[in-house]
Design brief:
The protein is built from two helices and four strands. By secondary structure, it is an alpha+beta fold. Strands 2-3-1-4 form a four-stranded antiparallel β-sheet, covered by helices on one side.
């Protein structure tokens, strides 16, 4: 399993968490998504390395943006 962390930059409420989680889970291979509302840090667990473009594309469908954590 592969874990990837990044920061969702425009989270405002619990509904944002739910929408973002649902969008990220639609990515092929993603099994688990954990998002912290206070920090915006998200972690996905998948069976392969997910391309950054797939992550940002999924979030864009729910009008969210993200930054990579270095």
């Amino acid at each position: 399993m592969v874990n990837q962390k990044f920061r969702i930059t425009n989270l405002d409420c619990a509904a944002c968490i739910k929408l973002s989680t649902m969008a990220l889970k639609k990515i092929s291979g993603v099994g688990d998504v954990v998002i912290d509302l206070a920090t915006g840090v998200a972690e996905i667990t998948s069976d392969h390395e997910v391309a950054w473009e797939e992550i940002t594309g999924a979030l864009k469908t729910v009008e969210k943006t993200a930054d990579q954590i270095t």
